[in-house]
Amino acid sequence: MSEPSPLAPALAQRLDLAQEMKRRGVRLTRQRAAVLAAIQQATRHLDAESLWRLVRARDATVNLATVYRTLGMLKKMGLVDELDLMHLEGEKHFYEVSRSQSHLHLACFECGKIEEYQTEQFLKLQAEVESVCGFTVKTGRLEFGGVCRTCRK
Ligand SMILES: [Zn+2]
Ligand SMILES: [Zn+2]
Fold it and tell me: Is 68 in contact with 49 (CB distance < 8 Å)?
């Protein structure tokens, strides 16, 4: 019996980093542009070193410090989110391009898989916080740790 998965990566909603840079009038060095392109096209949540490996395939002159500096800049601009994903891999942090809509991360303690889930409930919670607390939410993160569908079998 297979049920349709409610999990959707919703890649279409990722912000376009190059376009955002242009819109904000930020000029990029060739190296930083390579970091941007790599994270834009990443298909999973990457830590800085994994991202660095992808970047070096595009431009071998990029060093890890440049990757960290570029991630720091993108984070400050609200274009990239930094996640610890339930510390599944210890102190490692992961990065992903911000979305137009917040999503949940489901971290499997058995296999380490990270799934994403989007729900209207998250937006409702965000709206509730804004009205009750008088707080403007810029970004939201919610993580559940547990056992995934595959590992449960
Ligand atoms: Zn699992
Ligand atoms: Zn995610």
Answer: no
Question: Which residue reads 């989110």 in tokens?
Answer: 81
Q: Which CATH class is domain 14-99?
A: mainly alpha
Distance 153 CA to ligand 1 centre (A): 10
Q: Tell me how far the alpha carbon of residue 49 lies from the centroid of ligand 1, in angstroms.
A: 23
At 86-102, the pLDDT tens digits run: 888 888 899 999 887 77
Predicted confidence (pLDDT) at residue 3 exceeds the cutoff of 80: no
Fold of 101-153: Dna Ligase; domain 1 (3.30.1490)
Ligand nearest to the CA of 113: 1
Distance 116 CA to ligand 2 centre (A): 6
Q: Give the count of alpha carbons within 13 A of 121, CB side only.
A: 5
Q: For the chain, which residues make up each domain, given as ranges?
A: 14-99, 101-153
